[in-house]
Each structure stands twice: as structure tokens, then as C-alpha cells.
Amino acid sequence: MTTPDRRFGRDRRVRSRRDFQEIYGGRRSIRNRDLTFCWRPAEGDRSRLGLSVGRRIGGAVERNRVKRVLREVFRHEAGTLARPLDLIVIPRAYHSAADHARMLSSFRHLARKLERELAGEERE
Questions:
Q1: Predicted TM-score of the model (pTM)
Q2: 99 FRET partner, CA 20 to 30 A, in 33, 63, 85, 109?
Q3: In 3D, which of 122, 121, 66 has the Cα closest to residue 99?
Q4: Average pLDDT in the 102-119 region?
């Protein structure tokens, strides 16, 4: 039995300004009270993550903590997506108490919602 590759290298990240603009420009997004997902189908065979953490989340230390938590959640949950996506995650709120569990729950909720939406697109 092989273990899945859970590293988070550069090939797993949305990094260029052009990619961010194309994903935002596609106007495909969903949200809940904690997170917003913007996405497009991935060009490769793996999902990629982009993060957009604004100053309203807090100072640099808080923003970096939120990014670390979201990268960790994505590393573990990316395999649950039915198809590879380029995904930008935007935190809408920061909750320091139990933030990892809450972000994980919010991410899973949006991933399920996204899968339902993608399944609906396939039927059309």
C-alpha cells in the first residue's frame, strides 16, 4: 500500500497573478460563513491552492497562521475532490479558538457543496 503524496510543493500552488485573475474572472465561487472558494478546472492532473488572506483577518502573524492552517487542511482534503481544480480560498473570518477544527469543517462543507454544483454542471 502506498501513501499519498501530501507534500505541498510549488506545483500544488496557484502562484501567478495571471492565474489568480483568470480564476477570479471566471466568476465561479461559493461561500459559507467562514470561507469563500473561487475555482476553475485544473490544467494539470492535480488540484492547486491559492490563498487570499486580507488584512481584516488581522496582523501578519494571524494571517500567516490562517494560511498555514488552510494549507494543512487542503493537503489532507484535496484528494476528496472528484476532479482536479485550481482553487482560491479566501477566509471571511478568523476565529482563534479552535480555528483548525472550524476551518476544516468549513472546508469540508464547501467541498461537498462544490461537488454538488459540479455534478449539476455535468448533467446539463
A1: 0.86
A2: 85
A3: 66
A4: 90
